[in-house]
Amino acid sequence: MSVDFQASLFDDLLGEPAAPVGGAPAGFGDLAAGLLRHRLGAGAWVDVRPGWVRGADELFARLVREVPWRAERRQMYDRVVDVPRLLKFYDAHEPLPDPVLAQARERLSAHYAEELGEPFTTAGLCYYRDGRDSVTWHGDRIGRSNRHDTMVAIVSLGDARRLSLRPRPGHATGEPVSFLVGHGDLLVMGGSCQRTWEHAVLKSTRPVGPRVSIQFRPHNVR
Ligand SMILES: O=C(O)CCC(=O)C(=O)O
Ligand SMILES: [Fe+2]
């Protein structure tokens, strides 16, 4: 069984007007207002803040247009296969492709400063062109996250996709959960989440439009 949390359902509860359609500049809602923590077990948690980025239509369009997206290929057993999404990684000192992303990183670093103990530095961008694009089950465990608690903060733009989580065998128990992350939503995986749980954006057979995901991580977490 999977438990569904539909971010969009919370929108009205926050009592904040939805972003106007069209060219409004991107801005941010109060991060702490409407931020909800879901404890997954084994020290893993997920924070969700629906509609954090406002007026993000233009931002989404700019990122789709201007980020130098890369198609990658990976070895899978005895074959080389296309990675089913486009990617671009910005290391700590590389300029981000849009000032709004720098603002998002600053706000996240400020909000989580005490709990995380360090700033978010890098930004990994993924472009899911349609429902066939996906990321398979994994933990972000390259680097310190293999041994230490950390955070990965994801801003989602464009069409909503489901971020699914399940316990990593031998490391956690519990029911799988999934969060529908939509345009402007923030989802933060924290605590032991990368070591003890796995996450994925699974392929969708329903028609789904493009989505851009921006993942902010601290230094040497990937
Ligand atoms: O698309 C997402 O929000 C998740 C991407 C992800 O898990 C990753 O790139 O490590
Ligand atoms: Fe990931």
UniProtKB/TrEMBL annotation:
Extent of the signal sequence: none
Residues of the Fe2OG dioxygenase domain: 119-220
Record key words, sorted: Dioxygenase, Oxidoreductase
Record's protein name: Alpha-ketoglutarate-dependent dioxygenase AlkB
Listed Pfam families: 2OG-FeII_Oxy_2
Gene Ontology biological process: DNA alkylation repair
InterPro entries: AlkB-like (IPR027450), AlkB-like_sf (IPR037151), ALKBH3 (IPR032854), Oxoglu/Fe-dep_dioxygenase_dom (IPR005123)
Cross-referenced Gene3D superfamilies: Alpha-ketoglutarate-dependent dioxygenase AlkB-like
GO MF: dioxygenase activity
SUPFAM superfamilies, alphabetized: Clavaminate synthase-like (SSF51197)
PROSITE patterns: FE2OG_OXY (PS51471)
Native organism taxonomy: Bacteria, Bacillati, Actinomycetota, Actinomycetes, Propionibacteriales
